[in-house]
Amino acid sequence: MNKLFALCSFVAIVVLGCAGADVRPLVDMKGVNETAYEKDLQECQAYAKGQSGMGETAAKGAGAGAVVGGLLGLVTGGNKTGIAQAAGAGAVIGAAGGAFTGNQSQEGVVKRCLTGRGYRVLN
Q1: Which residues contact 48 (CB under 8 A, 6 or more apart)?
Q2: Residue closest to 87 by CA, chosen among 64, 107, 106, 103
Q3: Distance (Å, rounded) from C-alpha 122 to C-alpha 39?
Q4: Which residues are paired to 121 by β-bridges?
Q5: Distance between CA atoms of 112 and 88, rounded to whole angstroms?
Q6: Average pLDDT of the chain?
Q7: Closest Cα to residue 48, out of 20, 73, 70?
Q8: Engineered SS bond to 21: which of 27, 31, 48, 67, CB 3.0-4.6 Å?
Q9: Neighbours of 10 (CB within 10 A)
Q10: What is the pLDDT of residues 5-32, one digit of tens each?
Q11: What is the dihedral of CA 51, 122, 40, 56, to 10 degrees?
Q12: How much is the pTM?
């Protein structure tokens, strides 16, 4: 169980380290008013933070991962403890994948917002 806790902690640190809505895309700043850009960036980041679904995506990933992990534990002939651990590990991995997808979605919102406001986003 300590290994599962360590895995959960590691995944949480990795997921929280992702930029998500706080991304600062690479923008061609030639001829750009930096004050106006910073204001637009903050507004676009706020839009991305307001986007619902990131938590839902992580929760769905956790549920699916738990089911798959539990089934793998069952198929491999694990006892109740082994099945529970496999389900827990699957939930952690599924939640991390869902959160990563949510982060990518938020980054996309920021980049599309800035592009829509006339900035040349390079990444």
Answers
A1: 20, 21, 23, 106, 107, 109, 110, 113
A2: 64
A3: 19
A4: 27
A5: 36
A6: 73
A7: 20
A8: 48
A9: 12
A10: 455 545 554 444 456 778 899 999 999 9
A11: 10
A12: 0.54
Q: Are 20 and 48 in contact (CB under 8 A)?
A: yes
Tell me the mean pLDDT in the region 38-44: 96
Residue with tokens 């300590």: 2
**Token pair for residue 27?**
């923008």
Structure tokens that stand for 121 in this block: 């986003």
Residue with token string 């997808």? 101
Cβ neighbours, 10 Å, residue 112: 14
The pLDDT of residue 36: 97
List, for residues 46-99, the tens digit of each pLDDT value: 998 887 555 555 555 556 565 556 555 655 666 666 666 666 666 666 656 655
